[in-house]
Write a structure and sequence with these properties.
Helix content: 10-25%
Number of helices: 14
Shape: globular
Number of strands: 48
Largest sheet: 8 strands, mixed
Distance between the termini: 71 Å
Radius of gyration: 30 Å
Strand content: 35-45%
């Protein structure tokens, strides 16, 4: 290769960067560099002496962006490697760009007050699936938590959720700092026979997002335990263990040298005699010291230590893990966007068939929204990693008997830096929380159900078919239940089965009976409910009774009958049913940097439609968030709009650009269903599939599409709303919260909230057109009885009225609490005009019930002594509830 020493040096000077002479004066400085992989690999550079670990591969330029200690840059120059220095001094750059006050700047949870965990929402994003915990506030180290702040937050969790949280110490660091562990489960203080999962962070001290995001995950589980049934089931059926700071000494050292964040120290703080530190993630026993997977030089950033498990930190984790029965483990790192799977030295080991299935399927689940791709160390970062935790968990001598291998991952945070700016902490924590939840699910019994029925049902009686797949690491009985919702009168008995093999399947069917008076085109809805070992997954399915079919193609005929494309075609390489499917690369793997479209030959007439759906089966293997498929429609044949389906994501990452897309890997055939309600009445709707790949030459197998159908219904879509219930409560003086449930169809428009003082003359006080759960706050409730009802309005102005709810506000009474703020004791004085039995309820500001006690009120002044010595120093809510469950008063109380 021609030497480019002078070219690179000139470029650096032109950019106002640094020279070799300035490098020698700053021994602790790290620079972010882009290394072009023209004619060499990172493994070659590693052998030449370059310390490389973590970074971001840019596919478009075939380059690797990483952090390099300044005294290692001459290795690149010596070997004539083309590189560019992007950031001269990463620590100083972080301090200059970071604004701790921007901690919430990219976060708007105002529309997520009722967000529930959902893994497949049309056009879903992590942002609108995961709500930020109320306790997740900014830390003092540039937005990140210090070691001491982490301990404080963990102690707060233990205090606030004593039955859900247990804390313990797994050992102590070189400098004697505590390595704290947290267990979250329904009976955290009891060792129960539940699936166990391990989360670790901060093995590398400069990767601050790893610990901070684990705190986010723990707080999310705890705060949502009583409001989201899926979170509750996950906590109840798993034992989740968190070691958020594996390297307390190195992390505290970074705080010492850079109190506002940005410290670049990586290793622990072992005194090597002239240098410090061992890379903890090179110190485990599998392949330790092997194959250029680290360094034997003590001053190196990847120094593997004097022997395997030489460090008290790795010893502590080893000893802890051998006492448990973990099935999965996730080790958090920064900063590239990928999952590094076993093995760090792939040439030394081989997957079993189960290994390959688990890592392929689970990494796709975890990376659905954070756009991570997955592979072993060579496939993700291009160099060997010896003595890493993921290999030891999978292959190490951890235990015998009932213990099995621990399926482990290294997860990179995808933040583009070891210290992402404060504004990115919450978005990244949401992404990592989502992946952590998926990991916890797969640690135990877990199953996926695919509805196998056509979108068209042609008989009022029959059987509904399904395919059940085992995607969890523990085998437990699985029960499938068919729950009728709309136009289905009855369903057969639930079916219970076991699937002993991971990724194994079981076919089943349950009988159904439709409403005998159902008309052609009418909608049918039902739920497939899958329950195993405490985990319940409910999937609502929409089908139609004998609707009009506008397009049906099982791909067994001739491509040109229904499709127009110069590149797509039918192939026998894969098929959902029959022998063929449609693919963007029908003769092999797809090439790099292409855009390929396929259009329906005929337009779709949705005139007069009251409902319309697109349905097809799809499987795919692509670069996650870079190579993708968009389903698009056009009303004029010129501008095409991507539309949302059950498996599409809308992240603004990679090459997606916020457009609804199918991407990543799904090796099993999956049903995609898309509601075309936004295009009802269009007489010439055009449909196309657009596939886009990037410049990366390592391509997957692409997309396969089979059994596509477009249907429409012209059946009258009258109002099908049914109010299940309406409830409400007084949550503060003159503040009433209303809740209701209602069945809705595609003609639903909005709800009106109406109020009356006498129960006769109602007036509208607000409207709601959000997704369920439905709620509304009346901030001006009048004293006495308030009458509420909900008026549902559909798009044809048809209405339905709920029953009336009565809520009493006020009475002849007065309440005084003193002192306020309270100290160790406080007195509650209540003056009342009748005898009444009450209950006092004390809540934290986050809604957690701390205490309740009963008392009798008598006519006149009543005095109740409150012991507030155990309250923490924060805001509390005191509710006074009557024997009729009416809220007499609500007080906000703080403790000094």
């Amino acid at each position: 290769m021609k030497s480019i020493y002078s070219k690179v040096n000139t470029l650096v000077l032109a950019l106002g960067m640094f020279t070799l002479s300035s490098l020698a004066q700053q021994p602790d400085r790290y620079s972010k560099v882009k290394i072009y992989l023209d004619n060499q690999s990172l493994a070659t550079l590693q052998v030449a002496g370059l310390d490389i670990d973590h970074g971001e591969y840019t596919r478009e330029e075939n380059a690797f962006i990483t952090s390099v200690r300044h005294d290692k840059l001459p290795v690149l120059r010596k070997d004539n490697v083309r590189f560019v220095v992007l950031i001269e001094n990463e620590q100083q750059e972080f301090l200059s760009r970071n604004n701790p006050k921007a901690f919430y700047s990219k976060q708007d949870d105002s529309n997520l007050n009722n967000a529930l965990l959902n893994f497949e929402t049309p056009c879903g994003t992590v942002t609108n699936s995961i709500m930020t915990p109320a306790a997740f506030t900014a830390g003092s180290m540039g937005g990140y938590y210090t070691y001491a702040e982490m301990i404080t937050r963990i102690n707060n969790m233990k205090t606030d959720y004593p039955t859900l949280v247990d804390t313990f110490t797994i050992g102590y660091s070189w400098e004697g700092r505590r390595m704290i562990g947290v267990k979250i489960s329904d009976n955290a203080g009891t060792d129960e026979p539940e699936a166990e999962v391990l989360f670790t962070g901060l093995q590398h001290a400069r990767e601050a997002i790893t610990m901070t995001s684990l705190v986010f995950t723990m707080q999310y589980l705890l705060e949502n335990y009583n409001r989201d049934v899926r979170v509750r089931e996950l906590v109840d059926s798993r034992e989740q263990f968190f070691i958020p700071c594996m390297n307390p000494d190195g992390y505290v050292y970074n705080q010492t040298i850079s109190p506002n964040g940005g410290g670049t120290w990586r290793k622990n703080r072992r005194n090597n005699g002239g240098s410090y530190g061992v890379d903890l993630n090179r110190n485990y026993s599998v392949d330790w010291g092997c194959c250029n997977g680290g360094s034997a030089t003590p001053s190196s950033d990847t120094y593997w230590g004097p022997s395997a498990f030489s460090e008290p930190e790795t010893q502590a984790l080893r000893d802890f893990v051998t006492t448990r029965n973990f099935t999965t483990g996730l080790d958090q790192h920064a900063y590239g966007g990928y999952y590094s799977l076993p093995f760090g030295i792939a040439a030394n080991h081989t997957y079993t068939p189960k290994d390959a299935l688990y890592y392929s399927y689970t990494s796709a689940l975890m990376g659905r929204n954070n756009c991570h791709f997955a592979g072993n160390s060579m496939q993700t970062v291009g160099y060997n990693v010896a003595g890493g935790i993921k290999d030891w968990l999978l292959l190490g001598d951890i235990g015998t008997g009932s213990k099995e291998k621990i399926y482990s991952f290294t997860s990179e945070a995808n933040g583009g830096s070891f210290w992402p700016s404060a504004a990115n902490i919450i978005p990244l924590s949401k992404e990592l929380c989502f992946q952590n939840l998926q990991t916890a699910y797969t640690a135990g019994a877990y199953a996926d159900l695919q509805d196998l029925n056509d979108i068209t049902l042609t008989s009022t009686t029959g059987n509904l078919n399904y395919l059940l797949r085992n995607i969890g690491l523990q085998n437990e009985p699985v029960t499938v239940t068919l729950i009728p919702l709309e136009n289905m009168e009855s369903a057969g008995n639930p079916i219970t089965t076991t699937i002993p093999d991971y990724y194994g399947t079981s076919n089943g069917s349950i009988a159904y009976t439709l409403n005998p008076s159902i008309q052609n085109g009418e909608r049918i809805r039902f739920i497939w409910s899958v329950q195993t070992n405490g985990i319940t997954i409910n999937d609502t399915i929409t089908r139609f009774f004998n609707p009009l079919t506008l397009l049906a193609d099982n791909m067994e005929g001739t491509f040109n009958n229904n499709w127009s494309s110069s590149s797509w075609g039918f192939t026998t390489s894969a098929a959902y049913a029959g022998n063929k499917s449609m693919s963007e690369s029908p003769t092999g793997r797809y090439p790099a940097k292409i855009t390929r479209t396929v259009n329906t030959k005929n337009t779709l007439n949705l005139s007069g439609a009251t409902a319309a759906y697109l349905s097809f089966w799809v499987k795919h293997e692509t670069q996650n968030c870079y190579d993708n498929l968009r389903i698009e429609v056009s009303t004029n044949g010129k501008q095409y709009t991507p539309i949302c389906g059950r498996t599409t994501v809308t992240e603004n990452k990679g090459a997606l650009g916020g457009k609804p897309s199918i991407t990543g890997i799904r090796n099993a055939w999956t049903r995609e269903t898309i509601d075309l309600k936004g295009y009802l009445g269009v007489s010439q709707l055009r449909l196309r599939f657009t596939f886009v790949s990037n410049t990366d030459t390592l391509k997957g197998d692409g997309f396969y599409i089979d059994d596509i159908k477009v249907i429409k219904s012209t059946a009258p879509s009258g109002l099908r709303e049914e109010f299940v219930n309406i409830s409400g409560s007084l949550v503060d003086k003159n503040l009433v919260q209303l809740n209701w449930e209602a069945f809705t169809d595609d003609k639903h428009d909005f709800f009106e909230i109406q109020k009356s003082a006498d129960g006769k003359s109602f007036s509208t006080i607000g409207s709601v057109n959000t997704q369920p759960p439905y709620l509304f706050y009346d901030r001006n409730a009048g004293e006495g009885l308030n009458h509420y009802r909900i008026r549902q309005v559909n798009k044809n102005n048809v209405e339905k009225i709920s029953s009336t709810l009565k809520i009493k506000v006020g009475a002849t009474y007065s309440v005084l609490l003193y002192p306020n703020p309270v100290t160790d004791y406080s007195t509650l004085q209540i003056s009342y005009n009748k005898n009444e039995k009450i209950e006092l309820q004390v809540f934290r500001a986050d809604g957690r019930l701390l205490h309740k006690q009963s008392a009798n009120l008598y006519i006149g002044d009543n005095y109740i002594r409150l012991n507030t010595s155990l309250w923490d120093k924060s805001m509390h809510i005191v509710k006074i509830v009557t024997s009729k469950n009416e809220i007499l008063d609500v007080l906000k109380v703080s403790r000094q």
